[in-house]
Structure formats: structure tokens, C-alpha cells
Specification:
About 90% of the residues lie in helices and about 0% in strands. It is elongated, with a radius of gyration of 18 Å. The mean pLDDT is about 85. It contains four helices and no strands. The protein is mostly helical. The longest helix is centred in the last third of the chain and has 31 residues, at about 70-100.
């Protein structure tokens, strides 16, 4: 059975939009997991958390540079995603640390 023309174009290997969405979703998942690991490390040991954060920043800058050479739009989307996830992680850590200090 043949797929309709529009569906075969949508799942085509040459579809840049599909690959862009896959790239952003995969990057969103991996960045969220990395920041969750960072949160747990920094709550246990701040020095190790700082080292892990430096590693994440270096990897993020290199990834952002590579994505920007491929597509400015995808680079801006991923950069905006970094900003939002960092803000969420900051406020989450701030809340957890204040809760620990109250105990």
C-alpha cells in the first residue's frame, strides 16, 4: 500500500522541519535530564555541582555553536530553551535549599 503524497513528504529523510523538531525534542529531553542530575549533585556537594555546571556550560556552548552553523532558527530556539530551563532549575534549587535550611 502506497502512502499519500503528503504523508510520504512528511516522513521523508529530506524533510528539514521534521529533523529540526527531532533535534529540539531530543535536546530538550537531554538538557532536562542533565539539569536534574546537576540539581541532585549540587544538593549533595556544592563543589562537585559547580564542576558539573561548568561541564554543562561548555557542552552547551559547543552544541549551540554547532547548531547555529546549521540553522540560526534552531540555534535561537535551543538558546531560548536553555534560558527557560536554567531559570526553572535556579528557582527549583533555591526552593529546595531554603527548605533544607528551615529543617
Amino acid at each position: 500500500m502506497m502512502y499519500p503524497e503528503s504523508l510520504s513528504n512528511l516522513i521523508s529523510i529530506n524533510n528539514d522541519v521534521l529533523w529540526g523538531i527531532i533535534l529540539v525534542m531530543g535536546h530538550l529531553i537531554s538538557t532536562t535530564l542533565a539539569l536534574a542530575i546537576f540539581s541532585s549533585i549540587v544538593l549533595q556537594n556544592k563543589k562537585n555541582g559547580l564542576l558539573f555546571l561548568i561541564l554543562l556550560i561548555v557542552m552547551g556552548v559547543l552544541t549551540l555553536y554547532r547548531v547555529m552553523t546549521y540553522s540560526i532558527t534552531l540555534g535561537l530556539i535551543i538558546g531560548f530553551m536553555y534560558i527557560i530551563l536554567c531559570i526553572v532549575t535556579y528557582f527549583s534549587l533555591k526552593k529546595k535549599m531554603s527548605r533544607e535550611n528551615q529543617l
